[in-house]
Amino acid sequence: MIAAQLPLLLRSFPETTASQDILEEISPLPSSSNKDREREKSAQVKRSKLITPRTSKEDLEMKARMELKYEEEKRE
């Protein structure tokens, strides 16, 4: 019985005034999907890896000493 009524319902569905509301209720547009959230998380992780605490004063001094040592060895 339902199978016989289905084509009639499908044909008349777009003509109903509430059809758009029903469609939106059935498949609402997501504000953000899980994939979007995962992308945001991975982008945050990549950004945080770029900004590391390795640029401390001691590290910069060590780098400068290493460069000076390299220059001195190069001259010899």
From TrEMBL:
Q: Where is this region: Disordered?
A: 17-60
- Descriptive protein name: Uncharacterized protein
Q: Where is the composition biased (Basic and acidic residues)?
A: 34-43
**Which organism is this entry from?**
Araneus ventricosus
